[in-house]
Amino acid sequence: MNFLFLIIIPLLVGLWAQMKVKSTYGKYVQVPSRGRITGREAAAAVMRNAGIQDVEIVECHGTLTDHYDPSHKRLALSQENFRGTSLAALGVAAHEAGHAIQHKQAYAPLNLRMALVPITSFASQLLPVVMFGGFFFGGFGPLLLNLGIGVYLVLTVFQLVTLPVEFDASKRAKLQLVDLGIVERDELEGVTRTLDAAAYTYVAAFVSSLGWLLYLLASRR
Distance between CA 59 and CA 56 in Å, rounded? Predict the structure, then answer.
């Protein structure tokens, strides 16, 4: 029963979130903005308005691979969002620019997330050991169980800290797009739906990590 509620249901929620973001993005990437401003131009305008002049905007491969790299001060946008003028492209680009603003303003949750990256990366590398070890050895022994709890504790904390970082970036994006006249208010619905759908994936990731952590803790009894 614990496996059903703590593992299977969060897994299904995660799959739903992935489908939701793909379908929503797929819909609004087809809706051009009236201003015909590209994602690159929108990101540059948002950062320029915040007094940011030292962040490089680059094009990257893939779909929805957009990200802000605070260590190199680089904002990467996928081709559709870098060159595109759609409501989805503008929303994603402004969202990533929101992270750059967070970095400039030393936004506490972002700083904490950055500090957690090394240990989270290490924990992620241990995850296959935990999962395959439990599968091949027919369950979680004491050592493997404690390792799994440690790994999922780190991942859960990281996912929890990620939530305010992402929600705040989306909030900043929507405000900036309207205030700068990049989109009109009646166009904001498409931007909002795109960013909200992306937010579901972060919530799902947190729920999944928390589910595994609680499941492993319950297995110690």
Answer: 10
